[in-house]
Amino acid sequence: MSGFRRARKNKQLMAGAAVGAFVVLLGIFGPMIFGDYAAQDLFNGHKPVGTPGHFFGTDALGRDLAARATYGIRISLLVAIAVTALAVVFGTAIGMIAGYVKGTLDGFISFLIDFIWGFPLILVAVLAAASIGSGLLPVILAVAFVNTVAIARVVRGEVLAISEKDFVVAARAGGYSTLRIISRHIAPNVIPVALVLSSYYVAVAIIAEAALSFVGLGAQPPLPSLGQMVSDGRNYMRINVWESTIPGIIIFLMVLSVSLIGDGLRDLLDPRLRTAVERTSAK
Amino acid sequence: MTAILKRVALTLVLLFASSFAVFAAIRLSGGDVTAARLPASATAADRELFLQQVGLDQPIVRQYFTYLGNMFRGDLGNSLTNNASISALAVDKMRNSLILGAAALVLVFAIGIPLGLVAALRRNSWVDTGITSFSVAGMAIPNFWLALILIYIFAIQFQVLPAAGQGGWRYLVLPSVVLAAEGVALTVRMTRSAVLDTLGNDFVRTLRAAGLSNRRIYLKHVLRNSLLPIVSLAGLRVGQIVGYALVVEVIFGWPGVGQTLVNAVLRRDYPVVQFFALVLVVVVTLGNLAASIGYTLVNPRLRK
């Protein structure tokens, strides 16, 4: 069966892709349809879902929740893409170098990896906020930093295992350069692993950004981050429970979609990865 | 044995390095301490004098060792916002966080293991589908939103549990459940796949052939073989719980290390940030050490 047909038969992957496509489309077209996310209307605050002109209702300042939530999706996606691109590129490169070169350099890199691994992600982000200030940049840097380490860790292990294999030993005996062995023989075997892992770390990035914005250390107002919207809405749960529920559901759907895609890809590409991923705590 | 000793030695080095990293990250931050502590009218000379008095004119490595020295004598410095002594604050906050974290850790295993076992034994039935979907949802739901849903149901609609604060055991229920949620989901998944792996072993068939009851085989032999690796990794769950505690304590107004740390960052109260960040890093590093020792102990192949 071709790869594409196998992918179509994978229920988790398809369900995840469907949910993900829905949220991404909302993020792309929502802000165009629902208008200005910052326009206030103090006489029409706390309107419920389904109010004419305000599809998801309004928040305490009368701002349109649909416009804010869909713009919030953009911010989440921006952070997730930036973080994951940085983490996959650097994580794979560092992991491959450490795993292939071995020796002192590997010892040093492994020590650094162990060292950074000791810090929980949220704590690193809080420390980053403490030293650079609150905002999206420290969130992106901190999460990318930790995810790079997470990916480097797994890639290094994979490379160590692969470089013992006969075809690599043969290539080395054949006198090929290190660069050629890494790029032609090792990278093609390691990159799928990094990609499957990265789908988990997309989820990590989305949740971390939301959580940090929730406590006030992430995106700063008036930018409508989903985490911050949940936090704003929590003070008015008795009046209008949708103000925190709508952004909450959107975060949930995004993370759910990415985890389903991750599980599906893992089964499709490499069932062996299961334990490696589960031992790596998410978030 | 040597592997464990090596690991302990490495952990000591890690603790040293990470405490210095936390110290340096906060010292090197852009914030001007004199602006926070002195009135705006202070002259450049006043600021110089102040820096000398508190030792901030020294090189950073020297400051670090002075800080460590003071710490071991029980002097942690004072808060910049209200000048309260940090040592007086610390014991209380650490105890509160310990209570919350321990409760969450117990829940993770007390709920996660039975659910995972049932899912594996009733594989592919509706029970399994239900439990597995529950765990997928449990990993996808952001814990701060789960907290709000639970507050809405139990504190606002039914008014059976308090929404926030600290007092008797009733105050502990919601925060510990939220803190445990992802760990439970993860433990369910791990237990399920570990039990399924164990069931495939020959010894299970032998035990069955020997006439042991299913109940005895599952509870005594299969569960024990599957759980060792999971429980031995409990230390890793500690790291996760510490990370989440930062957010969960803020939501539930739980006066612990996490809440204190986040508030201190928002107020740029650096001495407080420094100490409480250090506490969390030490706890996580020790948790990782426990996990790797636990894993070495149960996995003879790693023991060498």
Can you offer a commentary on this structure?
The complex is a heterodimer of chains A (283) and B (304). Helices cover 74% and strands 0% of the residues of chain A. Chain A is mainly α. Chain A has one domain (10-27, 57-274): MetI-like fold. Chain B has helices at residues 2-27, 33-37, 44-54, 60-72, 86-121, 126-140, 143-157, 170-199, 202-209, 214-232, 234-251, 257-266, 270-298, 300-303. Helix content of chain B is 79%, strand content 0%. The radius of gyration of chain B is 24 Å and the shape is elongated. The interface between A and B is large, with 50 and 55 residues.
Structural class of chain A: mainly alpha
Helical content of chain B (DSSP H or I, runs of 4+): over 70%
Helix/sheet category of chain B: mainly alpha
Using the CA coordinates, give the radius of gyration of chain A.
Answer: 22 Å
CATH-defined fold name of chain A = MetI-like fold
Number of helices of chain B: 14
CATH superfamily of the largest domain in chain B: MetI-like
Largest sheet of chain A: none
User: Mean pLDDT of chain A, rounded to whole units?
Assistant: 81
Reported by name, the CATH topology of the largest domain in chain B is MetI-like fold
Level-2 CATH architecture of chain A: Orthogonal Bundle
Give me the CATH superfamily of chain A: MetI-like
What would CATH call the class of the largest domain in chain B?
Mainly Alpha
Quaternary status: heterodimer
Largest sheet of chain B: none
Rounded mean pLDDT score of chain B: 81
What string gives the helices and strands of chain A in order?
A: HHHHHHHHHHH
Global outline of chain A: elongated
Total number of distinct structural domains of chain A: 1
Largest interface: A-B, 50 and 55 residues
Total strand count of chain B, please?
0
